[in-house]
Amino acid sequence: MLNFLQMIVNGMAAGSTYALMGLAMVIIYKTTEVPNFTQGEMALLSSYLTYMFLDQYGVPYHVVFPAALVFAFVLGCVLEFVVLRRAKEPNILGMIVITIGLEMILMGFVSWKFGADQKTMPFPITPYDSVVIGKVFISTLELLTMGMVLLLMTGLFVFLRYSKLGIAMKATQQNDVAARLMGIRTDRIRMATWGISSTVGCTAGLLISSIVMQPYMMWDPLLKGFAAAVMGGMTSLPGAVFGAYMLGIIENLFGGYISIEFKSVVAFAIIVLVLCVKPSGLFARHYVKKV
Hints:
Blueprint: H1 2-32, H2 39-55, H3 61-82, H4 92-114, E1 130-133, E2 136-139, H5 140-162, H6 164-174, H7 176-181, H8 186-209, H9 219-232, H10 237-257, H11 265-277
Helix pairs in contact: 1-5, 1-6, 1-8, 1-9, 1-10, 2-3, 2-4, 2-8, 3-8, 5-6, 5-8, 6-8, 9-10, 9-11, 10-11
């Protein structure tokens, strides 16, 4: 029983990282209906630049971490403005291919600039400090990650539901032409969406890099975050978080009781299963656009 509870907690801890990436993907999808596979590498670049300023230039935490979030926002805006917006006659498949291409470019740049050797991100909280609840152990870093997930999910939900920009993002997704006729600057909305999404992804990258830091560190969280968003619903923030925690728990139990070698397969199996049974996800509503 104790081992089971520990695996549940470990699964929730892993799911918190997936949730951050899932939230980042949902934000863009809610506006553009395109999965953004550049998400992980935008966080990767922001994290490595943070490492450079901390390790080589000695910039204090309270300066470099907020600066990293600002940089991530600007990076997202620039990529949307310079690359995505210039795509001729864009379609969903073409946009997905573009995001994958950007992913490869950013990863190649990080590998060239910083090398492939594993590094250690200086961080005010170490992953080795733990708290004990009963006989279950959980690290303070994992608690911080869970707290960030709940904070960001609540903040983004309120922002998208009640703010003018959030309502404009939803209108842009549902009918781009009608939104423009109503005076919404849809290009600017999409650019801001990329910036916000990149900032959320950067948060995940900074937390992950305190444990492991190498050029491929965001691949697994990105794929698991995408699987979580598909499971919960690509337009539902709470759904993405729920899917992430369920995925983390399921794969952890699968690895503990069946085989750890097939642990990563669970995410892709869940994508296939959910798409077959409920294509819109567990929490998202399916709607038909009128043209």
